[in-house]
Amino acid sequence: MNRTPAWQPGRLPQAMFVCAMILISLQGHGLAQSQAQKAIKIDEVMTLANKYRLFNGSVLVAENGKVIYKKGLGLANMEWNIPNTPETRFRLGSITKQFTATLILQLVEQGKIKLDGKLSDYLPDYRKDVGEKVTVHQLLSHTSGIPSYTGLPGFFNNVSRNPYSVDEFVKKYASNDLEFEPGSKFSYNNSGYFLLGAIIEKVTGKPYEQVLKEKIFEPLGMKNTGYDHHATLIQKRASGYEKTADGYVNAAYLDMSLPYAAGSLYSTVEDLYLWDQALYTERVLSTQSKDLMYKPNLENYAYGWAITKAKLGTGTETVPQIGHNGGINGFNTLILRFPVQKNLIVLLDNTSQGGSLDRLSKALTNILYDQPYDLPKLPLAAVLRKTIEEKGIEAGVAQYRDLKTTQGSVYDFSEPELNQLGYQLLQGKKLKDAVEIFKLNVEAYPQGFNTYDSLGEAYVTSGNNELAIQNYRKSLELNPQNAGAVTMLKRLENPSPAVAAGAMVDQKIYDTYVGEYEIAPAFKMAVFKEGDKLMTQATNQPAFELYPESADNFFLKVVEAKVTFTRDDKGQVTGLVIHQGGRDVPGKKIK
Q1: How far is residue 584's CA from residue 413's CA, in Å, rounded to a whole number?
Q2: Are 58 and 86 a contacting pair, CB within 8 Å?
Q3: To the nearest whole percent, how much of the chain has pLDDT over 90?
Q4: What is the pTM of this model?
Q5: Kind and range of the H or E element at 156?
Q6: DSSP state of 259
Q7: How far is CA 367 from CA 76, 220, 320, 363, in A?
């Protein structure tokens, strides 16, 4: 099931609508006129997006290699009312990966690294059983099988604020057991790019940050790009914010030693334009190396870039597209390059807008290619949520139908809009309300597989497995590739005999499980009794009930996960194993 973050419409200070610079200094009156018209259309889209709180940041658009539009919208610092400008510096998140990939390919050109070289060839202290299997190519293409550290249990709650040296972090958080045979599948992986940064440092004998400066930023004149250290005073650096259903809050602190070569850079829209232009030359990489960097591997991911085709307008026409997005505490970013026409779109946002950047980039792409495009619309979810909170779900449904009839062109009635409202209600434990909203989405989008998947999840959470099965089946019928529906149907239709029978487990045995278990250095799980229930609560997370399948084997209903308690040869409980997402994560009993 796909979830999108909440946003809320509302008016912003006038300062948020300043700092525009629309550039039309082009040769040829007809071309200049055409690009001027496009700039006006782009400005209308971006100004509306900012007004509706769908975008707060800086944007740059280039056509045929020439900038036709750049502008800052909204606030770089909301507490001081400081506006964004084209010179504002934003954290890039995973756009960092293309710079890391470029450094690796430069070292390949110099004969210091081989793409088929093993991880252990360059990091000899790395665990041999994994390091001798994984290649540099697999790290670059997200096919290594090494677990991504950002997916480890409790990472963001318990680890992300703490500084680490590169070697220490590799040992603690980027050296886990393989999730799959290297090269056999794609799984987006921040650990892989962290390890590539470590390789760059080991091979060059210099810090990753210094190599970037010497080999890319200084040669290209990217004076407003660098490694984002919290302690360093960085001029014109934007503050990061998170959007909630009630407005903005400051983004959670993140120690920037952790994203490292996977996501720790900052830049401006103007510097990323310099980067884009340099990639059409051999200033940073040879043509042969760039061919390797843009060659799609599994899931169309190359080296630090996703290689796709952008659909134009309402027809079937497409254009080749090279791009990458980024997401890091308080920031969302996107760079899209259209190499045939040398067009470019850069969107840097300091309010974690999620899916908004994708929708905006589609509109801007269609404008560039003289295709029909959609203007941003008022977010519907926040309006309905307020009504539901104040007057109840029936009033919310009635308002939805009224607005759709009377203001269908003003509000956003897209499938993700109701979906995100449904999840807000689900997470707020308003189960009945969530079910009604998901049902409304199914009604509006009867051919959308995700609408049935989300409704199925709501029914599971509500304890109505029969209706959950019906909706998961429909979702799978519409999209046979929906692996989540397959998993849920297996669980719901074929429960183990113990679960089907109510798992008759002597509750006296629960006492042997009670205690504290260490899953990671800063992540623990408490297991305790609450009446006749066995409960578990991880660090900084809510408590959930563990349901028995058999003695020592339990499952959770809130997530697709199981827990097995382990015993020594004397029968004493000494630990547990969490089975989730195809991984087995052990924990030692410490109390």
Answers
A1: 41
A2: yes
A3: 66
A4: 0.79
A5: helix 155-158
A6: T
A7: 27, 29, 16, 6
Contacts by 572-576, CB closer than 8 A, 24 or more apart: 572/512, 573/512, 573/513, 573/515, 575/517, 576/517, 576/525, 576/527
d(CA 53, CA 11): 8
Q: Tell me: the pLDDT tens digits for 318-360?
A: 999 999 999 999 999 999 999 999 999 999 999 976 668 999 9
Write the CA distances from 11 to 56, 77, 293, 408, 544, integer angstroms: 13, 17, 43, 21, 40
What is the C-alpha separation between 28 and 33, in angstroms, rounded? 9
- CA–CA distance, 32 with 11 (Å, rounded to integer): 34
Lay out the sheet containing 226-227: strands in order across.
Answer: 90-91, 265-267, 226-227
DSSP symbol at 401: H
Structure tokens at 332: 């969302």
Each residue's pLDDT tens digit, 192-201: 999 999 999 9
Average pLDDT over residues 482-505: 67
Question: Angle at Cα 109 formed by Cα 108 and Cα 111, nearest 5°?
Answer: 65
Q: Which of 377, 383, 450, 438 is nearest to 409 (CA)?
A: 377
Cα radius of gyration rounded to whole Å, the chain: 26
Q: Please give the share of the chain, as a percent, with pLDDT higher than 70.
A: 90
CA distance 506 to 509: 6
Residue 29 identity (one-letter amino acid): H
Q: 135, 104 in Cβ contact below 8 A?
A: no
190/187 Cα distance (integer angstroms): 10
pLDDT tens by residue, 533-545:
888 888 767 778 8
- Cα–Cα distance between 483 and 263 in angstroms, integer? 29
Q: What gap in Å lies between CA 434 and CA 418, rounded to an integer?
A: 10
> How far is it, in rounded angstroms, from Cα 161 to Cα 404?
44
Residue 370 has pLDDT above 60, yes or no: yes
CA distances from 17 to 41, 75, 338 (A): 16, 9, 28
Distance (Å, rounded) from C-alpha 256 to C-alpha 234?
14
Q: Which residue has the higher pLDDT, 61 or 511?
A: 61
Q: Contact 118/132 with Cβ under 8 angstroms?
A: yes
CB atoms within 10 A of CB 281: 11
Task: Identify which of 453, 449, 454, 450 has the alpha carbon closest to the alpha carbon of residue 437.
Answer: 454
pLDDT on residue 243: 84
Helix (H, G, I), strand (E, B) or coil at 154: coil
- Mean pLDDT check: name the lowest of 15-24, 285-294, 297-306: 15-24
Token pair, residue 38, equals 């496009």
Parallel, antiparallel or unpaired: strands 90-91 and 265-267: antiparallel
> Under DSSP, is residue 292 helix (H, G, I), strand (E, B) or coil?
helix
Tell me the average pLDDT across 167-173.
93
Distances (CA, A) of 379 to 57, 197, 346, 400, 427: 18, 40, 23, 12, 19
Q: What is the pairing mode between strands 378-379 and 411-412?
A: parallel
Each residue of 335-348: b (16+ CB within 10 Å) or e? Answer: bbbbbeeebbbbbb
